[in-house]
Amino acid sequence: MDKILVHGGHKLNGTIRISGSKNSALPILAAALLTKEPVTIHHVPDLSDIHYMLQILASLGCEVERASGTVTIRAEKIITEAPYEIVRKMRASVCVLGPLLGREKEATVSLPGGCVIGDRPIDLHLKGFQALGAAHRIDAGNVKVFAGELKGGVVNLRGKFGPTVLGTDNVMMAAVLADGVTVIESAAAEPEVVDLANFLNAMGAKIEGAGTRRIIIEGVKELHGAEHEVIPDRIEAGTYLVAGAIAGEKVTLKRVRPEHLEAVTEQLRSAGYQIETSDSSMTIHGNGEPKSLQITTEPYPGFPTDMQAQMCALLAKNSGISVVTDTIFPQRFMHVSELKRMGADIELNNGTAIVKGVERLGGAPVMASDLRASAALVLAGLHADGVTEVNRVYHIDRGYELIDDKLNQLGAHIERVKVKG
Ligand code: EPU
């Protein structure tokens, strides 16, 4: 298990390249199950979550080849039961359910438990499958979905915390091979859903409306092989924009889609930072302390829950009083107690953090608890005095390709230390 030591106070300057999106790549790789022909995916980030997904696909019978950022998958003969040992490591394994159900009319995956960011039910995924005519059974910790045949249907995927991203992906992947037309109402409109729909259409699917709240899918008999480039990771990009705000003089990101980051750039601009954008690059000027902000997470195009922790790290120092509310995962505030160990003044109340910017943060040993909380601790370390020791770094490696190398490339001073055991 590694730990990361962040030596605070170093200025960031320069250019880095943003990796392919984890949350796009995961369902896109799973979609390879929908065809017997090979698919080739470019810009697949080198992350532990991606390795788990490739292991799951291999265990389902896929031939998987990987050469740097390009993955080729051939799902000629597959089985429909994903092994618990790998599935339990990653909640996103649930997105093999849709393509297996679509192609083989049955799928079994172990039921994801809760995770530190909150309860993670899949009731909406199951509701969507049911609308296509599938039943489900929960047995010995596994969920099995099955259907004699899949028929297009109408389903509303809005839950009490808004639309579901992977639920929308799953239902879309099952519906592409169903008989007739499926309409998903209150669909998630995240860019990752659009990326998946574009890939499925390249495989011969007929999907319209991805990126809006209504997706219409006309089932086809079969899909064929295709080649696809995964979109840049907007959350990785957003995290480095916050790094630029915290410690940057001038930080430029290449291979980004600024239009996917509008809610984030709007908040950073309100906090006083100057951001310039072009078609595929963004530059932030870290000109001083942040002004206080009011942030509420919302489904896309609103402010992403996946950027909430990083903003708390920014606002923790010299910012006045900010109010940060997470409406999607109201329990997703594990970073708060760790930031407080670094001297932050943050009060938590029912999914809302009141962040009172302090004059000084101090390095401390802190514990990473989930991916974005861990990233927030590294960011906080950039403007803390002394050394911040972030333990349980495997959480960061789930979603950030070479975060220490990329920040060091900009002038940060970060060490990765191997810890035995
Ligand atoms: N929900 C339900 N029922 C369901 C599914 C979801 O009530 O059947 C609730 C969830 O508990 C949550 C809300 O609906 O309160 C939204 O959850 P969603 O289903 O959209 O989350 P997800 O699809 O499981 C993806 C990302 C998350 C990201 C969320 C929200 C992937 C692999 N994961 O999860 O990313 O936070 O959407 O945008 O795409 C991350 O990258 O750090 C991460 C956690």
Your description of this structure?
The chain has 421 residues and is of the alpha+beta class. It has 2 domains: 2-15 and 233-418, UDP-n-acetylglucosamine1-carboxyvinyl-transferase, Chain, CATH 3.65.10.10; 23-229, UDP-n-acetylglucosamine1-carboxyvinyl-transferase, Chain. It is built from 14 helices and 27 strands. The strands form 8 sheets. The chain has a 4-stranded mixed sheet, with helices on one face. A 4-stranded mixed sheet has the order 2-16-18-17. Strands 4-5-3-15 form a 4-stranded mixed sheet, with helices on one face. Helix 1 runs parallel beside helix 2, helix 1 (22-31) runs parallel beside helix 7 and helix 11 (334-341) packs parallel to helix 12. The longest helix has 14 residues, at 234-247. The model has no long low-confidence stretch (mean pLDDT 95). The structure holds uridine-diphosphate-2(N-acetylglucosaminyl) butyric acid. Uridine-diphosphate-2(N-acetylglucosaminyl) butyric acid binds next to helix 1, helix 5, helix 6 and helix 12.
